[in-house]
Amino acid sequence: MSSLLRDRSEDGGRSPLSSTLARELKGEKMIPVYGFSRVKDPVVGETRDLRAPWALEETGLPYRVHGLDYVEGDTKTGDNRRISPFSQVPVIDDDGFVIAESGAIVLYIAEKAGVLIPADLQGRSRVTQWCFTALNALEPTLLQIQIIEGGGEKATGVQRRPELAERREKNLRCWSSSCRVALTLQVKILRSLTS
Fold this sequence. Notes:
Layout: H1 16-25, E1 31-38, H2 51-59, E2 63-69, H3 78-83, E3 91-94, E4 97-100, H4 102-113, H5 121-150, H6 157-173, H7 180-185, H8 187-194
Parallel strand pairs: 1-2
Antiparallel strand pairs: 1-3, 3-4
């Protein structure tokens, strides 16, 4: 999946993978992380699923990666859809508490471990602000630049719009209105559907 997970014997057994195996052998409860085992070549090392193991490594929480083969369609199986309504990764399952979306996972891991995030409300809110900024202001812009520079078949907005509109509809069908805080973040999107 990534260099984080490679077992390198020259490091004296200090690689994350050998550390993970040692902790598992000691009987520590591992947090399952569902991520990619294989993706298409242009995105190797750039996928969002790398964020969860990175945060787990930074916090020292024990985890085990369950690889899904994107190329073979593992993310679209019924098993994956049960834990990830949008058929995406990463997803973690912390003793029955299943959470998807890399930003939410990273914040959850930080809160659980008590590191990477301040203990006070204002400090946590500032970290949350920068997480939203990274995911909603910086990443989409950079992603569009990558798509344009990559020159893929559907590089222009006009060409990509039908696919994106279909994805929006599918995602909104999965939307749970029970989360009122998140719902307030979607007002613009919901208004666009009625106009």
